[in-house]
Design brief:
Blueprint lengths: L1 E4 L2 E6 L2 E8 L2 E5 L2 H13 L3 E3 L5 E5 L3 H18 L2
Antiparallel strand pairs: 1-2, 2-3, 3-4, 4-6, 5-6
Length: 84
């Protein structure tokens, strides 16, 4: 579900915010800490993904069309992490 908040639109799954616009060319994705730990070797190699202060979130810099594919993949992981 997409919700329009004071900070801008967010995407939620079962009431949990999993995707939000962080401003400029950055989107933040709530993957959960266990998912980030599993994906850590790949995320470290990806220059488009950065850690966020909250360890359950990552920031994805959107510079080019392939970044959209990365965002879709990470959003899919986030959805799976938040749906029983």
């Amino acid at each position: 579900m997409v919700i329009d908040t004071r900070r801008g639109p967010t995407f939620t799954v079962r009431g949990t915010e999993i995707l939000k616009l962080a401003g400029g060319d950055e989107v933040q994705v709530r993957l959960t800490t266990p998912a980030i730990d599993r994906l850590a070797p790949y995320l470290r190699e990806c220059g488009q993904v950065q850690a966020c202060p909250d360890p359950a979130w990552v920031a994805v810099r959107m510079d080019a069309e392939p970044d959209l594919d990365l965002l879709f993949a990470l959003t899919s992981v986030a959805i799976k992490e938040h749906v029983a």
